[in-house]
């Protein structure tokens, strides 16, 4: 297992480029199931989750050339309809193959993803939607088994905003007979991008990016050629890296409009954020001001940035209140941030962070993807050395993070444990 050694206290400066989005690329990869033929996907980030998805597609019978950058997925020989526990347990998004396999082959069998570090994460909304489209759904020995001779369009109202649920039903409805209306749909940019991909393949989707999406099913879809959008969470993490080190960083290949909620909060904290020459410049202040945040579905403050923002607030000049409203257990980073000398009190879904003058480096453990990112940020700002173990979590979602941070002047090394 690898670990990261960070010698903190260096001000980050220079330029960094953002990779393709993990959360956009994953459903796009699974969308290849819907159309037989050779698909081209560009700007695919080199990540553990991408490798898992490619492996899953290969298990189903697809042939994949390339692992990152531009990859080609040929789904002509795809003939398996099962995603096993081994694959689904390492990456929850694997469950998104259930509907596409069902739409193409009339049946599929996928392991239930189960809970994970940040919460129980049920898939009831996904299954409710597939059932409304006429699928016969059975749960047996930890697997979801789905069958449908014909999938029919349906009106589906989500009980809550679900990104994966919206993506799953959008993909499936593209090949259903008649019209599907998704109400109370999630509005994340990754969903608008998925609809754009599907429409490019011949689907008829309107309203993606709003809370009501209409899908008119078509008989067949054609293979895609698509470039994945930049990763807004990686971009946001670099923005905080600049802020927390009092640095001055130019971030290329990011879309600031996808990060409005974060950018406004950073500005409230005294961080300068502005667009310049197709890039975003971020300058940290001498002392961070405390700012409260509440995580919400897009366009609200993203839960995937909560841990990183908390690391920043640990050094604020006063107290801030952070409420996590999406996942019930997404404060795993708190116990680790305390090791740096942070002052944080959790009560239910709220953390009160009393800023301290300095953090001091510590041995810490990564517990999930964004928690790991918050520890890297704290380590960059802390005095002395920080050692982060179990960074395989970080490798799920950040491409070459230590190289990118080194390029900005950080003293960070990956070593084998
Ligand atoms: C691969 C990917 O894109 N992952 C993102 C996606 O995860 P994911 O798609 O799993 O997250 P959801 O938006 O579905 O989950 C939001 C909330 O709804 C609940 N829920 C969801 C589905 C369901 O059927 N029933 C139910 O109760 C979940 O437990 C959670 O509390 O959106 C999350 C919320 O922005 C992000 O943190 C993840 O990074
Ligand atoms: C929670 C995340 O991912 P996943 O939904 O794949 O667990 C994330 O990207 O922060």
TrEMBL record:
Which parts of the sequence belong to the Enolpyruvate transferase domain?
7-405
**One Pfam match, by short name?**
EPSP_synthase
In which pathway is this protein known to take part? Cell wall biogenesis; peptidoglycan biosynthesis
Q: Which UniProt keywords apply?
A: Cell cycle, Cell division, Cell shape, Cell wall biogenesis/degradation, Cytoplasm, Peptidoglycan synthesis, Pyruvate, Transferase
- Superkingdom of the source? Bacteria
Reaction equations catalysed: phosphoenolpyruvate + UDP-N-acetyl-alpha-D-glucosamine = UDP-N-acetyl-3-O-(1-carboxyvinyl)-alpha-D-glucosamine + phosphate
Where in or outside the cell?
A: Cytoplasm
Q: Name one GO molecular function term.
A: UDP-N-acetylglucosamine 1-carboxyvinyltransferase activity
Task: Please provide the Gene Ontology terms (biological process) for this protein.
Answer: cell division; cell wall organization; peptidoglycan biosynthetic process; regulation of cell shape; UDP-N-acetylgalactosamine biosynthetic process
Could you identify this protein by its name? UDP-N-acetylglucosamine 1-carboxyvinyltransferase
